[in-house]
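Input/output pair, single chain:
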Amino acid sequence: MGVIVNKKDNDNELSRRITADLRAKAIETADIEEAEDVDLAEDAEYLRDLKKTSRFGWVWIVLIILAILSLISIVFM
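Output:
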């Protein structure tokens, strides 16, 4: 037994339903009255246990660059 699926119609309907479900979930969890400007990027599963970088995150970048420069100076001198 087989099923014939029209991809254009199915994608539009599926996308519409997924978007509607995600908007409803975001409204329920965030108590937002307007669903127009909902950002669902932070609702992703893999982002739930992560913390945002503090304002001193640039210090780590400077330390890494200094470490690389010191290694280069040790090897070539």
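The radius of gyration is 24 Å. Helices lie at 7-30, 57-76.
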